[in-house]
Specification:
This protein is α/β, with parallel strands linked by helices.
C-alpha cells in the first residue's frame, strides 16, 4: 500500500513532468487524506490546471482529486466586474435566451432575467475571489458545457466550478464532447468552425485543420481545454497567414 509520503513524492514529480509546472515559479500545495489528493495554488493557464489534476489522479493509491488550482487571470478585476462579464456572455447568447439568470450579490439572490413558463433552465451565478460557480439546471450537456466556457471567457476569471444539473438526465460520450465543442466554436467570434475538424476518444480531443492566424489556433485549443470533462487536448491545427 502506498504511504502518504510516497503519494506526495509521486504527485510532485508528476506535476513537474506531466503538467510542466515549475515548483519555484508555480508552487502547488499538495495534501493527501484518505486516498484523496487536494491541489491548491496558482498555475499559468487552463492546460496546466487540467494536466495537473489528471497527473495526480493517475497516481496509484489516489481515488479522488480535489482541484483547487486557480489560473493567472488575463486581467485583475473585482468580483463584481467578473460577475457582470459572465452575465453579459450568458444573457446575449442565443442558446440561453429562454433561460432564467440569477446572481448572488451582497448575500442576496437577484433575478436578472426570468425565463417564464417556457424557461429552458435556470442558472445561478456566484463569483468569489475570481472563482465563478454555476448552479441550477439546463436542458443538455452541451448547454452545461457552453455555459462553463462562457464563464471561462469572462475577463478576470481564475476558475470555473460548473455544478449545473441536467433536466432531463443525459448520458455523456465522446460524441457529446464533439457536439459541445462545435457549439462553442460557433459561438466564439475568434474561431472559424468550418476550418477545424474535431475528434474525441476517451475524452481526449484532437483538433485538425488550417486557420489564418496563430491567435485563432491558440484560441481553438483554449476552448477545448475549457470544456467540462475534457482530459487532454492535442492541437494539430496549422496556422497559415
Amino acid at each position: 500500500m502506498q504511504t502518504t509520503d510516497n503519494i506526495l513524492s509521486q504527485v510532485r514529480a508528476a506535476l513537474a513532468h506531466n503538467a510542466h509546472l515549475d515548483p519555484v515559479a508555480h508552487p502547488v500545495e499538495i495534501n493527501v487524506a484518505t486516498r484523496c489528493v487536494t491541489l491548491a495554488g496558482e498555475v499559468p493557464g487552463i492546460a496546466a490546471k487540467r494536466l495537473a489534476a489528471a497527473a495526480a489522479a493517475a497516481i496509484e493509491g489516489v481515488d479522488d482529486v480535489d482541484d483547487r488550482l486557480r489560473i493567472v487571470p488575463t486581467a485583475s478585476l473585482g468580483d463584481g466586474a467578473i460577475r457582470d462579464a459572465v452575465c453579459k456572455w450568458l444573457a446575449r447568447d442565443v442558446d440561453f435566451h429562454n433561460c432564467t439568470l440569477r446572481v448572488f450579490d451582497s448575500g442576496r439572490l437577484q433575478v436578472l432575467r426570468d425565463g417564464g413558463e417556457d424557461s429552458s433552465g435556470a442558472i445561478d451565478i456566484v463569483v468569489e475571489d475570481g472563482v465563478i460557480t454555476l448552479r441550477g439546471h439546463v436542458i443538455s450537456l452541451s448547454h452545461k458545457r457552453l455555459a462553463g466556457v462562457l464563464a471561462w471567457w469572462s475577463r478576470g476569471c481564475r476558475d470555473v466550478v460548473n455544478l449545473l444539473d441536467l433536466k432531463p438526465a443525459e448520458e455523456d460520450s465522446d460524441a457529446e464532447i464533439i457536439e459541445a465543442l462545435r457549439l462553442v466554436f460557433e459561438t466564439d467570434p475568434l474561431v472559424h468552425p468550418e476550418q477545424i475538424a474535431i475528434a474525441s476518444r476517451d475524452y481526449v480531443v484532437t483538433l485538425k485543420g488550417i486557420v489564418g492566424t496563430e491567435e485563432e489556433r491558440r484560441q481553438a485549443e483554449l476552448d477545448a481545454w475549457y470544456l467540462h470533462g475534457v482530459r487532454r487536448v492535442i492541437n494539430e491545427i496549422e496556422a497559415r497567414p
